[in-house]
Amino acid sequence: MNDGVFEESIEGTPQGGNISPLLSNIYLNHFDRRMGDYGYLLLRYADDIVIFCKFVSDAQDALKRAKEILEGELKLKLSPEKTKIAPTRSKGVEFLGFRFNGRWRIPKDKAKKKFKEEIKRRTRRQQPVNLETVIRFLNPVIRGWGNYFKEGTVKTLFGELDGYIRGRLRSFEAKKRNWNTILFTLPEPELRKMGLVSLSSLLNETISCKGKSQTKAAYGKSVRAV
Question: pLDDT digits over 159-190, tens only?
Fold first, then answer.
């Protein structure tokens, strides 16, 4: 579209189109295999790529090889602004909502802020609904956000956010009953009985894999059969 007028294009794919990630994976599979043959550890989602190296010299070699493959063999163009070598231990690297810092990977501050804003929006005290309905509104957000980020170093963070969620629900219910929020208590077991999903419970949630019951350990470090 150009100023609201459709113009036919003979190259590229629609941004946000369903087929775009599939075509990207097909085309960049060559890059994945070539870099793997060189022994590099990389993460790629569509055209966003992070390559992990132990030394700066290794990172420089990796960048050189990546350019040779992407620009030389695949005829793609790298973004000068986004293509760089960054120290993970001192500054960290942000990728797909995570911040990688040495051996830790935690949700970005922006991701945490957006999550809390959504929780706050769904627990507005002026809503003409009861607490059970609010919990039903919250659960998809909690489960979706938690399942995505639970592979990171998040045990402490999840506990803190669970406390924030319970506080919002306590404030909501106190308002409905016209009680003092400071004096009003709403025990966690009672919220669980109402169906509230906690982020912490997702860390060790049992999953089904090829017909076997397995438990995914906290931080995503391992999977063990139970």
Answer: 999 999 999 999 999 888 877 665 567 888 89
- The single-letter DSSP state of residue 69 is I
> What's the domain count of the chain?
2
Average pLDDT over residues 96-112: 86
d(CA 140, CA 122): 11
pLDDT at 217 over 50: no
Same domain, yes or no, for 118 and 192? yes
d(CA 32, CA 200): 34
Instruction: Compute φ and ψ for 106, nearest 5 degrees.
Output: -130, 155
Residues 6+ apart with CB under 8 A from 216: 150, 203, 204, 205, 207, 223
Over the chain, what is the mean pLDDT? 83
Same domain, 118 and 149: yes
Helix (H, G, I), strand (E, B) or coil at 101: strand
Place of tokens 């938690």: 146
CA 97 to CA 219: how far, in whole Å?
Answer: 16
What range defines the domain where residue 59 resides? 19-85
